[in-house]
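Technical note accompanying the year-one report. For the benefit of new consortium partners, we illustrate the data format agreed upon in the data management plan: each record pairs a sequence with a structure-token string. No post-processing was applied to the example shown here.
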Amino acid sequence: MRRHERFSLGVLALASVSPGFSLAYHFNGVSSAIAGKFGLYVPSEVISTVILFAFSVYLHRVKGVSLPTVVIGLAVLYVLPYLGGVPLEEVPFVTLSAIPLGVSIVLIPYAHSLRSRMESLGRGYPQEELENLMERELKTIFLSMLPGAMLLVYLLYSTSLGRNPIGLFPTYLSVLFALLIGVIISALERNEGTASKTVLIFRTYMTAGDSFRVKGGSIWENGFEIILEGGSPVKRMVLLSFPSESVPEYVVIRSPWDSKFLTKKKESVENGVRYIVFSTSRAPSSQDIPSALQ
């Protein structure tokens, strides 16, 4: 099983925990029956979570229901008891039980787009490169969640670990503080240096036309496609350069006879211009960079 599939299952497991707690009272009889027959006590929360997770996996993997749809369904199941008139103040650890669902809602758009991107790329691309790409993206996501985690610690402190939801309200200063931390992190992550212009350089060895035209192809969340058209097929070095204001994580170059998956290999700043080199294996040396601009 590929890493992005394991990640999707992890998100579904996390999302199943919250409704598993809110619907646990429906499984008290099952818990008692297991204890009576096998002498083993299994909390009803665990039973309901496992059943909901198994059903979610069935919907997603077997029936083909999208990840966002499945998580929305779990969210509806989570709030149903409270919509039925159960006072929040009477539900122990109501704040804690909402945390897994809240985290999964943050992660599900990425998990969905990652799955769609992997399917659109298809097979034939280096799995190690794709897995490393996912790892870098996850690090960025979890870093961006840091301010929210700091706010969550304060919320748990102010609500006595979720026992007192009324304590959620005096949180304005902590929200401003979390936003300030987010701004600082965003500023620290900027790596523009003193360059006033960014040039992307793509280098690969592939089968392409002896004379070709370059046109844009598909655009994904963190990458895009370049299509080479025309000419007679020949094994050759393809060297392209484009000015750009944004830097992708990866680029796919396709011809009618071949396709290559390129990732970032080298970066340098020369004469106020920031050069970023993408390749499949050996990145061009600093002497190669100016030749790409001819």
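Partners are asked to follow this layout when depositing records. The CA atoms of residues 277 and 284 lie 7 Å apart.
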